[in-house]
Amino acid sequence: MNKQTQLLFALSLVVLISACSKSKLISRKDLKIKKTEYLLEQIDEHKLNFDTFSAKAEIKLNRSGKKQSFKSTIRLKKDSAIWMSITPLLGFEVARVLITRDTVKIINRLEKNYFIGDYLYINKRFNLKFNFDQFQAILLGNPIDFESDDKILFSLDDDRYYLGDLRKRKIKKADEKPQKIERKDEELLSLWIDPDNFKTVSFLLTDPTADRILLGAYSDFKPLEDQLIPHKLDFEIQAENPSVVGIEYSRVYLDKAIKFSFNLSSKYEQVYY
């Protein structure tokens, strides 16, 4: 499958997922086309606002045909740290992760080792370019930021707002006319926004220079302290080793006192990737 075909497939899938996730479709005639600047302001105002975030999560992973399920506790300090404790169904912790703006730390209790490094580890493992802000936004259902506001294009797509680096019709025609794809040296981002609450319902992040695409969809939004939080998150990573990840949140708390304990045993060996 070539890169343009992958992009077309991912775009079709994200539209299907986002359409199925919305219980009440809005009539197209009721949608009022606003300027891109206005829409960006509304999206920013409706981002999840918090100091700390914590939740229990059930995570299902299918990587290259190998399926795994486990429980996790996820804690975030806004713009500062992401902490995760991973526990299989048996109930004992097998891994602990601490991600800051420039460092990735992982304890592997099964193999009694630990890793301390930068984001190159995540980039190599998933063949995706992540930074802290993107990872935080993805876990919360907040929109990933565009690199430059003046390049963002706006349209309507299946009763949702579409924002992207490329016009949607150019993405759909990518397989037929690959020469129409511009900015081949940069990642491309597309967002689909619910016009009722300005929350992100799906996104597409792709790098035209490599075989890597990240597709995400959010559903089961529930109110908490006058804010909406998605409780079901579905991701598909199309890369050399494709993965499908499903996350379902429960017991979600905002602005609760949290800790990021990360004690290393002297018996554990440091590993390098």
Question: Can you describe what's shown?
Answer:
With 273 residues, the chain is α+β, with helices and mostly antiparallel strands. The protein has one domain: outer membrane lipoprotein receptor (LolB), chain A, CATH 2.50.20. The chain has a 14-stranded mixed beta sheet with strand order 7-8-9-10-11-12-13-1-2-3-4-5-6-14, with helices on both faces. Strand 7 and strand 8 form a beta hairpin.
Main sheet properties:
14 strands, mixed
Number of strands: 14
CATH superfamily: Lipoprotein localisation LolA/LolB/LppX
Mean pLDDT over the full residue set: 81
Low-confidence stretches: 7-32, 172-183
User: Cα-atom Rg, whole angstroms?
Assistant: 19 Å
* Strand order, largest beta sheet: 7-8-9-10-11-12-13-1-2-3-4-5-6-14
Which CATH first-tier class would you pick? Answer: Mainly Beta
Helical amount among residues, as a percent range? 10-25%
Order of helices and strands: HHEEEEEEHHEEHEEEEEE
Number of helical regions: 5
Q: Approximately what portion of the residues adopt beta-strand conformation?
A: 35-45%
Shape: globular
Terminal Cα span: 29 Å
Structural class estimated from helices and strands = alpha+beta
- The overall number of domains is 1
Name the CATH architecture. Clam
CATH fold-level topology: outer membrane lipoprotein receptor (LolB), chain A
